[in-house]
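Schema walkthrough. Field components (list of strings):
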Amino acid sequence: MTTDHSDARHRFAESLDEVRTGMLELGGLVLENTRRMGEALLENRLDLARTVVGADEEIDQRYSRLEFRVFEIMARQQPVAGDLRFLVSATRILYEIERSGDLAVNGAKGLLRRDGYTLPPHMHSLVARLARASADLFARGLDALRSLDPEAATAIDRADDEVDEVVGELYRAIARNAENIGFDLAIELSRIGRYLERIGDHAVNIAEHVAFVVTGSFPGGDPSAIQDE
Amino acid sequence: MSMDGPVSVARSLGGGTPGAERGGVPVFELDGLSVDYGSFRAVEDIDLAIGANEITAFIGPSGCGKTTVLRCLNRMNDLIPSARVHGAVRYHGVDLYGPRIDPVEVRRRMGMVFQKPNPFPKSIYENVAFGPRVTGHQGNLDELVEHSLRRAALWDEVKDKLRQSAYALSGGQQQRLCIARAIATNPDVVLMDEPCSALDPIATLRIEELMIELKQDYTIIIVTHNMQQAARVSDRTAFFTVDIKETGARTGRLVEFDDTGKIFTKPSQRATEDYITGRFG
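Field assembly_structure (string):
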């Protein structure tokens, strides 16, 4: 994305920057919605949950536009080397961001489906920790994309272990209290744990794609190491 | 290896068994190759090894010396009086510029195809038969012409008009005729200097398909300005660039030589990346 000689190539470089900016803006919307979903759950706010669901329409539209833009650039510019790595990775990163957005919506819809629910105190603190940790991780994934930092993946992967630990604690607490809180809520809270954990995984994936864009290699050297759905 | 007299010179050039060197001795080894035209140094210190039955693409900006290097491989630079070649060019392990090497024999073993189709002002048949006649072909000439035209994917289009002028053919057909002519003398290397630059996309595609087919029998080296073409057809790519010295002199050098897949996805040199992504040159 450096300067270049011809107008055509200059426009190409600009279009790559537009895609990256578009991805960051999309990521910002998803991050906001993820935080909103956590708040809706913790405070039993149906209005916030509705906002989360409503905001997803714009996220989906932006996602489709950006993905089409990437295909168009690839078709018209026939990119190679770093440009090719960036554009191919952009389609993957867009997917990671959009999926994270869907997970936030799933959590909000769960709250709406039950017409709201109140978290038992112990689980409230666990969900609060988890929601904060997942959103922070997602923000770090976006920071890696903003700065094109190939080293971020390793640190984010370590931070994701912490999210996994909190999820483990939440699952154990659900198992211990399933009868008291009712099985329906127990199942819903398990889903919430899963959604938030997955958002963390998507953040790790984003950072790993960034490493590939910059270095041409995935951290650990094996693309299959990227976490699957 | 003895090099007494023309016969043993021919033998000493090796070849004969296309593909025998796959994974073994390279077909060409360039060792510290530099070329001067008078006091002007065109390329400097090129080290390169080209394997058998591969398509090797030379890419780089104008003036980087890629055509100069190509012309060293069949001693075409000998035809330019001021040209001087330094360093070694080994062909099947033999120094091509050794004192007993016959440049005509060298060129028989290396067919060449040029930028613009350049058939002789003769019939289609005679264009292909010309080389074998000159080199004293002893077998059935009709068979050789048919075989060469078939190998060049042109036979079906010209079999009923072999006595017509080659000039009656389209540009793409003329270029395939030149390929047929180049392979009629049974070379083991085909050198191509921007063979598609005067052709439309369909004719270009046919030549590219032909190259991929021909590499089973020949080692192919192509100079191209079309990077997508290098990416599509070649196995290995050499990227050359041009250094401009303080005096204003421009000298070509080899920047990077690697598998084509690597060059176009993850080149190791910044200069290669800048060139192939269109940020330089």
